[in-house]
Amino acid sequence: MRELPAELVLPAGAVPDAPPGPPAVPKDAATVMLVRDSAVGMEVFLQRRVSGMPFAGGMTVFPGGSVDQRDVDATVAWHGPDPDWWAHRFGCSPALARALVCAAVRETFEESGVLLAGSAAGSVVADARPYHAARAALVAREVSFAGFLADAGLVLRADLLRPWANWVTPAPEPRRFDTRFFLAALPTGQHADGETTEADRTSWQRPSAALADWRGGGCALMPPTWVMLSDLAEHATVADAMAADPHFAKILPKIVRDGDALRVVLPDEESR
């Protein structure tokens, strides 16, 4: 596990006072690191969440969100590693594993317009813009993800995703998530956009450049995002990153006060 830098502290007010009683139960969530090759090296798609949002407002993050009932549907047309394979990697039930993969693909489509699906098992959509109306309907919860895929004659491409990491929001947070991070390559012909109400800025950046931007005060990163960017910075190309097989376990960090600052401490650091 990487050691977090000393200057990576949480902004004032980032962790509101937790209500009395036991910690909030984390919600299952999926986040996708969408990458592409460019003339300057591998880049990752980043979004700055709208300031004032209940969770991670103003932070630069990857597309993603929590699992909901639209994702718990065994009728989703599926190609790639089956839910049992994903369950083994993430240490959860096959039903939850299926829902996590569906949430990863759905949230990526809703927040970036990139659709990891195709009309047949071995194909992928070359242009997702014809599905713009369906994207809006998904965001508005007017249709289910399984229903959208069935109506469009599409198959979810689970084989385009790679499992990467699993982080749980620290206990003091009133909003907690058990987040599984995925890696996916931008499909040829598709374009990621900023057409989401949850972000006010989007960009493609080399992971090292995003980290340099953070060091210079240009963006705010949460510890998981910093670690993911540091991991990605070690890979020169999309193929290199997609071929990686990261060994990971569920990471349960803690929040400690360091003077006037709030710092996230990882299990390895806490034992030192």
Automatic annotation (TrEMBL):
The keyword Translocase does not apply. GO terms for molecular function: hydrolase activity. Keywords: Hydrolase, Magnesium, Manganese, Metal-binding. SUPFAM superfamilies: Nudix. The keyword Transmembrane does not apply. Its cofactor is Mg(2+); Mn(2+). Residues 25-234 form the Nudix hydrolase domain. InterPro entries: NUDIX_hydrolase-like_dom_sf (IPR015797), NUDIX_hydrolase_dom (IPR000086), NUDT19 (IPR039121). This is NUDIX hydrolase. It comes from Actinokineospora guangxiensis.
